Amino acid sequence: MSLKTQVLRGGTYLVLRQGLGVIISFVGVLLLTRIIGPEQYGLYAAATAIFLYLQILSQLGIEVYLVRREGEEQLKVYNQAFTLLLLQAIAGMLLAFLALPLIEKWVRLEGFRSVAQVLFLGLPVVLLNQVPMARLERNLDYKRVAMIELLGQLLCYLVAFPMAFKGAGVWALVAGWWVQQLQSLVLLYWNANYRPRFSWDLNLIKQMLSYSMGFSASIWVWQLRTLINPLLVGRYAGAEAVGYVALAIRLIEILSFVKIATWRISIATLARLQGNRERLLNAVSEGMGLQILALGPLLAVVSWIGPWLIPLVFGSRWLPVVEVYPFIALSYLSNSMFNMHSSTLYVLQRNWEVTAFHVVHMILFAGAAFLLLPRLGLLGYGWAEVVALVSYVVIHIYLLRNIGNPDYRLAGLWWGACGLALFAYQLGWWAGVGLVAVALLPETHQKLRDYLKSLRGVKPEGTS
User: Fold this and answer.
1) In this predicted model, which residue has the larger pLDDT, 38 or 425?
2) Cα(235)–Cα(247) distance, rounded to whole angstroms?
C-alpha cells in the first residue's frame, strides 16, 4: 500500500469522525445557543478562548515533537514528555490565576472571572492528554482517536443539555467541557497502552525543546488570533458581539472537518517525505486543491441560506451572525489553501520562518481590528480578517525558497469562485455564478475522480 493511500485511508477515520461530529456539534450548538442566548454563549466563548491560548502557551509544541520524531518509538521519550507537560501545566495554571484580575479588568464582561477559574483548573488534564494522543497519531491509529473524540463530544452535550434546560446558562457548557476532558484522559491512556512514569533526562529535554520552542513560538503568535474576539470584540462591542463572532466561527469550524483532519495527519505524513522535495511539492499542490474542494462549497451554501436559516434555527436574536460570517469564512477558506505550506515548513524544521509569517498576519489582523472595531462595530472584525489575508504572500515566499513553487492554478480558481460566492447576500445572486461554472469544469471532475481513486488504492492516471 502506498503512503498516499495509507494516509488517505487513515485520514478517512478522522474525516468520518469529524463528519459525525458535524451532526452532533450542529445539534448541540443549535439547542444550547438557542436556550442560553448570545450573552451567555459569548461569556463562555471569551473564557474558553483565553483558556485555549493558555493551553497553547503551556504545551510548548511537545506533542508535535512526539509525532514527527524520527526513529523508532522509545518509552523514555513519552515519559519525559509526560513529566515536562505536568510541570508546565502546574506553572501555567498558577500564572493564569495571577493574571486573571488584569484580564477581567480589560474584557469588562460580568461573570468572566468565575467561569475562567473553573476552566483554568482543567489545564493539567488537557495537557496530559497530549502524550497518549501523540502516540496514537504517530502510529496513524486514527480509528481509535476518532472514536475517543466522538464519544467525548457526545458526552459533553449529554451533560450540557439537561443543565441548560434547567437554567444553568454558561455553567451547562462548562460542566459538559469538564466531562469531555476527563473521559478523554481515561480512554486515551487506556487505548494507547501507555502507563506514565516520571523521567528527567537533560539531553532529551534539550532535544525536545530545541525543536518545540521554534514550533511553539510560531503557534503562540498564530493563536493570538483567538484572543481578538474576547479582548477586542468583548471590550468594544460587548458579550453579545463576542457570541455572534464565536457562533460564526463555530459553524465554520463544524464545516471545516476535512481541513482539520488533513492538518492533523499532515505532520505525521510529510515527515515521511522530508527527504524528497519533489514529492513534498506535489503533496502541497494536491493538498491545496483537496481542501478547497472539500471546504469551499460547504461554506458558500451556508452563506446563501444563512439569512433565513440562522433566525429560523437559532432564533432572531442571532441574525447579526449573517453579517460577519462571510468574512470569517473567507479567512478559513484562504487558510485551508495555505495549510500545507505551514505543515511542510514545520516538517523541514523551518519553524522560525512560519513564525515570521504569523507575526505579519497578527500585526495586520490585530491592528486592523483595533482600528476598525470602535468605528464599524461587528463588521470591523470581518474587515480585519480581510486585511490579514495579505500575509499569505509571506508563507508563499518561504515555501518557494525551500522546496519550490506549488501549482496554484486550479486551486486558485476554486478559491476565487468559492470566495466570491460567500458574499452572495451582500453582492447579489450573481456572486455564485462563478462557483457553478467552476463545478462544471472537466478539470474539477477529473481531480475529484483522482482523489477517489487514491482513497480506494487505485493509482490515478498519469502516475507511476
Assistant:
1) 38
2) 18
User: How is residue 298 written as a grid cell?
Assistant: 460547504
Residue 245 to residue 454: CA distance in whole angstroms = 37
User: Whats the size of the chain, residue-wise?
Assistant: 464
Q: Are 176 and 156 in contact (CB under 8 A)?
A: yes
CB 446 within 8 A of CB 409: no
Please report, in angstroms and rounded to a whole number, the separation of the first and last CA atoms in the chain: 14
The reply to whether the predicted model has a pTM over 0.90 is no
The CA–CA distances, whole Å, from 304 to 154, 309, 332, 348, 423 equal 29, 9, 17, 40, 8
418/295 same-domain check: yes
Domain co-membership, 289 together with 193:
no
Looking at the 3D structure of the chain, how many domains does it have? 2
Summarize pLDDT for 166-193 with one digit per residue, the tens. 999 999 999 999 999 999 999 999 988 8
Q: Does 276 share its domain with 304? A: yes
Instruction: Tell me whether residue 460 is in a domain.
Output: no
* Phi/psi at 332 (5° precision): -65, -40
d(CA 336, CA 326): 15
Domain range holding 179? 1-223
Supply angle C-alpha 272, 274, 280, rounded to 5: 100
* pLDDT tens profile 137-154: 877 777 788 788 888 888
